[in-house]
Amino acid sequence: MTPKQAWVLGLASLASFMMALDSQVVTTALSTVREDLSASIEQLEWIVNAYNLSFAVLLLTGAALGDRFGRRRMFVTGLTVFTLASVGCAVSGDIGTLIVARAVQGAGAAMVLPLSLTLISAIFPPERRGKAMGLYLGLTGLATFSGPFIGGVIAEGLAWQWIFWLNLPVGVVAVLLTLRRVDESTGPGGRFDHGGVVLVTLGSLGIVWGLVRGNLAGWGSAEVLGSLSLGVALVIAFVWWELRSEAPMLPMRFFRLRAFSTANAANFCVFASLYGTLFFLPQYFQTAQGLGPFAAGLRMMPWTATLMICAPLAGKLADKYSARTFVAAGLLLQTIGMSWIVLVAEPGAGYAILLPGLIVSGAGITSAMPAAQRSAVGAVRPAEIGQASGAFMTLRIFGGVFGVAVVVAVFAGAGSHLSPEEFGSGFTAAMAAVVAFALVGMLVALRMPAALSTSDRGGNR
Predict the structure, then answer these.
(1) pTM for the whole structure
(2) CB neighbour list of residue 176: distance below 8 Å, 6 or more residues apart
């Protein structure tokens, strides 16, 4: 690895670390925020959803801005926006201000995360890209691993505002080093696809809003049906526009590449299964087993720790062997691990009996992620990596939002929070939905090409 490659990988991973850590500690500290700001359950939900909403809606736009105006420039802009919004969260005196600041954080992250993948993919050759992405996910995994622990410490020992103050020094260092150590680059073409940006932004907003509001407002409500219908219509209009645009922000020919389309579909299922698990597993430890947030976070650490171990290893081996093998095998392990949880997760279940399922599940899902990323971005030409990364990240977030919406609906139909027993019934039903996502993803992954052929690279031969 050259020094320039090391700096790009390190800074992209640092940015991802900061945002992953923020996400983990926010979830753990929600109960403290509720007491301090007298927030309702719906308002607490929006502390999470405001971030996810702006993040998902603006991902493709963030990647397009980087390709047009400079990837380093927009990466630094996104880091600056995220860091300043973190300060806004820390000084929020009421729940409304905190929710707005979280939405601005999501907008900053929408510029940073797809461009972090783009910067890595552009500077590493295809034969070393999987290893680099595995290291990237492994370093990100350190935040995922330590997040529940740090969140528990802050929630119980300090003020919740410190979960946002932590981003200030990290953000400043990341901005200064990026300006000094990372070269500027742009994507193909010189024009900005204004029509595509408007259509995909409004279409994504409609779909994500409907998914976020479905369980609260009702899936048959005019608000949800109208939002989803309008979102789908605008996405169809976006596809039509891109097919006719001379400089599309997302060339539709990408989806004719089997490596790109199957990797994205499989990764959609990976994140639906992952987010569904992550949403309910901490609640299971707290509601069904009566533990506090800190103790629940500690019990999740063997599951989250697999990201630091398995992601770098799977990424490195995916360069040597087939990415399809690791995506399919990873999702099979997720299916097996969570099926075990479904069978044994009663309110009184001992942690020792749960642990094998958690480790197998974590190892599987973290092995699938870098291989899917490698396959998706490796299917296009180097100049188009930014566009491919934006699409990959967008579909990944859609998968997460969709997964949470489905498992919450399944939980509501089978259980409740009224007692540990009722929660346990809902939890096992929700985890069965998580298993279904993983199984579907595994079947899709088996359709991935064993290796990228000449026709799989670029799509316009």
Answers:
(1) 0.76
(2) none
